[in-house]
Predict the 3D structure of the following.
Amino acid sequence: MRRLLKSRGARKFTRNRLAMAALGIIAVYFLTALWVLLGGISMEATRQRVAPKQVPGFLETRTLEERVAFAMHYIDEVDQAVRLASRRDQDAYEILADKALAERRAAKMSTDEYNELLDEAFAVLEDELEGVEDLSHHPELEPRVERLEEIAAALYPVPQGWEGVKYRLRTFLGSDAAGQSISVRAVYSVKVAFQIGLITSVISVIIGSLLGAAAAFFGGWIDHVITWIFSTLSSIPYLVLLSVLIVVFFGTIFDNPERPFLSLVPVYVAFCSTFWIGPCRVIRGETMKIKELEYVQAATAIGFSRLYILVRHVIPNTAHLMFINFSLLFIGAIKSEVILSFLGLGVKGQPSWGIMIRDAKDEVITYFFWQIGAATVLMFVLVLAFNILTDALQDAFDPRHVD
Amino acid sequence: MWSFILRRLLYNIPVYLGIILLVMVLLRVRNPVYAYLGKNADAKQIEEFEKSFGLKDPFIVQYGRFLWNGIQLDFGESWKYKGTTVREKLLGAIPPSLSITVPALVLTSLLSITVGLLSAFNRGRLLDRLLVIAAVLGMSISFLVYIIFGQFFGAALPRNVFGEDWPLAIVGYGDWYRLSSVDIFGLTIPVPDAMTWVKFCLLPVLISVVVAMGYDTRFYRAVMVEECNRDYIITARAKGATKSKIMFVHMLKNAMIPIITRIMTTLPFLITGSILLEMYFNIPGMGRTLITAITDMDYPMIQGFTAVIALLYILSIILTDVLYALVDPRVRLS
């Protein structure tokens, strides 16, 4: 490891500014993931309703129709509560207290005060706005729409201060079809991506490089068995193998969306059993070369045991390939998660970029791009950073590599 | 040469047996009976079922029987679609897959070889840099996002603007092929006619080309850059050959080996089809049939399909090796 850090390749790598920027971005993502893991965003927060469904980002309601619909959502909420209260002979505020949209809570008023505001709102709506064909051709009606918005804000005041900042953060990328915050879900997904990416790529690289080095170094039947195993696994189409491996877990305790941490186990198992092949192949090839080199012969001549030579001299000299493969597999894991989640075999019970993109597929046709946009941009930046990192690592340590 | 081919064939037999073993073992980790009959099946039903499918026999007997029937291309009957044999399903699923993957492969290869060549020849210049950056950016976006936006800009949006006359459909439907059929081996296989192909297949093909371009261009560029530094290019230049002649005659010819290998290794995926595209656009090809069989736990289908796909895969690998050995005699010796 120390030898690797002092090598010429490492110097070439650290001089690559683009690669350093990519490392910085990855570090930011990693810290975000850590923050989420330590409770920065709870699972409940990703499920909480923060706004009416499919509100665009920045609460941006451009046309007058959209502004009316947005205001009416809050007014209707209060209207329903008041009706329910009169039937149950209850205070309307008690019902409304349960209907909070994250930090945005209903104002505390008596039922009469609610009714007063509601009457005015419906009067505005019915007398002046309803029946107008196309509101965008009637800019003179804008003050009336503004009045409606004022009533909505009086019923459901936008919180001030720290609460207000939190509310704006939660709503600034809009809401999905269930009224959940897109920004919260997209950031929470950073954790899920790192969870899947780190666990599977670290395990796969370790298994793959140990097996690959052992296969090439010891040769004979060990080599035959290991080659046989990875030839077999790689002759089945990758997605088919993943699906079969995950379906095996159906109906067990690992198939329960209520326990999101356990339900990721099939994904880990499936990824690890396919991902180790890449590093295994590469490191097997490299070890074939290394074992003929002078320093290995010298170590053998001195009388070190085979295992010692493998662990001390051969494996450390493949470390650069491990890093390259780690980076490649991380990308692979994040991308495969999206595809598996689309097929319904991936992440369950918690948001992930895959889940968000899958949910967004019907929204796109209706011109709602906030959910797919948020997930794609966050994922794109991370994958791009890893792609740049991989290229830089390859340039620095393995320059003769093709593809 | 023949001994080389024979060696490759013999070497791959244990691999093939391993694939069948792996799939059969994985499918038997959980009792297949419950997958088929549901959790509330009574004991008599279960017994009858196990007997009729031979699930009571020791595993090795089942394994042997599957291999023996497989050699005769008999994979049994689908559990989900009763009365349909796996073979019929298999043959029916091949044309939809091929009608997407073959045009996609041809287009992708032609485009990305040309772009790779251009990029390598202008190495270090603006065009090359832009292409390299575009390839990396393109590789960083998820396949699914390409599909969703491809569908939006290729079908949903133009349909809204130009009306229903727009030739591309939003999704492919189950009856996407008009039955102009071809007889192969005594079996009638439906093939899409040109208009239906454009309607349901063109969009998936274009999406798949765009997705593959990033990876392929980078690969071909790397290959061409490698060739650029060879002595024969310098000689050709010194002799005064024109730039385009060097590019398309000298370089392309010599870069053919890695190009052929790359294309050969993608051949098995022609049959498998692009699983994601088929799932998304409802195309009843191999990939979609297999993935739905997996989620439906239709065991004979899964076994039959993987057996055939793996066979094709291994055969194409052997073919690649043989072609390679033909072109480069040094390979045969190692």
About this structure: The mean pLDDT of chain B is 83. The first helix of chain B runs from residue 2 to 27.
